Amino acid sequence: MKNKRALGNLGEKKALEYLRNLGYDILAVNFYSQRGEIDIIAEDKGTLSFVEVKTRTGKKFGDPEESITLKKRERIVRTALYYLHSRGWPRLSCRFDVLTVKIDPKTGDTEFNLTRDAFQLEGDTYRYVG
């Protein structure tokens, strides 16, 4: 797939379907604030999950997980805290998941890898687990 944005959109569409099949209740898609963006916000068995989706067609740019830098994780956490605060929700049980989507450009075959609790909040900070 030549267009990076089109690939990302396709990956997110496939990710939504995958998460729904796992029983996630999707609450928001592409949530934006001045603090950043979260690809998917969902509930999974009573836990609020902020999901970062990374899509690739090969290893030319490395594994998808490698692109989730410290700066990116910080933006996701700040955006998640804003999301919770803007809805007047107390600190709920939440986690940060990473879902990688690998799409074969020739066959369209898709491979998913979901890492639950890839990184976690500790107070108003977080620690990287994965």
Structure in a nutshell:
With 130 residues, the protein is α+β, with helices and mostly antiparallel strands. 27% of the residues lie in helices and 42% in strands.
Notes on the structure:
There is one protein chain. Helix 2 links the parallel strand 3 and strand 4. The radius of gyration is 14 Å and the shape is globular. By secondary structure, the chain is an alpha+beta fold. The chain has two helices and six strands; from the N terminus they run H-E-E-E-H-E-E-E. The protein has one domain: Trna Endonuclease, Chain: A, domain 1 (3-Layer(aba) Sandwich). Helices cover 27% and strands 42% of the residues. A six-stranded mixed beta sheet has the order 1-2-3-4-5-6.
- Tally of distinct domains: 1
Structural class by SSE content:
alpha+beta
Beta strands, count: 6
Q: How would you sum up the major sheet?
A: 6 strands, mixed
**Widest sheet: strand ordering:** 1-2-3-4-5-6
Share in helix: 25-40%
Overall, the morphology is globular
Unreliable stretches (pLDDT < 50, length at least 5) are 125-130
Report, as a whole number of angstroms, the end-to-end distance.
Answer: 29 Å
CATH topology: Trna Endonuclease, Chain: A, domain 1
Radius of gyration: 14 Å
Q: Give the rounded overall mean pLDDT.
A: 84
Q: Total number of helical segments?
A: 2
The fraction of residues assigned to DSSP E strands is: 35-45%
Report the order of strands and helices: HEEEHEEE
CATH architecture designation: 3-Layer(aba) Sandwich
CATH class bucket? Alpha Beta
